[in-house]
Amino acid sequence: MTRLQALDPKEATGRSKELFDGIQAKLGMVPNMMKTMGNSSVVLEGYLNLSELLGKGSLGGKLGELLALTVAEANACNYCLSAHSFIGEKLVGIDTNTLQSAREAINADPKIAAALQFAKSLINKNGRVTAEDVETVKAAGYSDGAVGEIVAHVALNVFTNYFNNTANTDIDFPVVEVATV
């Protein structure tokens, strides 16, 4: 049972209504996570703005989705696992084996694997990664700016994981459950 109620877009007013209208126009729906975030328009707008900006970054949509899965598995967020598995497969075109492997920070491409492992290190070490962790991801071919973007992707996904785990958001995607707890 949800612990924070999703706001009905038809009953929303003010800035939340404006944001919902934009989401509806772009996605054809307003996902439950965003409906729930809409109880505070600043929370929803902050999420949307950072998500949009990171989508314009150097890492690309594929790596963004894979990072989201690595972080969601580490934080045991079924909502985010479900959403990013669906988005990764249906909208970004990532095969299911690659999506599944990303949950454990594994990828056949050594550069992508390095980014996923770095993300997992960020989570496991509460952001207190070592100089060696940073050098390893940079040696895989990531610039200082790209490393910063990986950190930002992790932060965004930690936010959504914590939000959805707190809210116990109703999953409105095909359900994927965490393998490790």
TrEMBL record:
Domain Carboxymuconolactone decarboxylase-like residues, every copy: 47-119
InterPro entries per the UniProt record, alphabetical: AhpD-like, AhpD_core, CMD-like
Family matches, as SUPFAM superfamilies: AhpD-like
NCBIfam families: ahpD_dom (TIGR00778)
Protein name: Carboxymuconolactone decarboxylase family protein
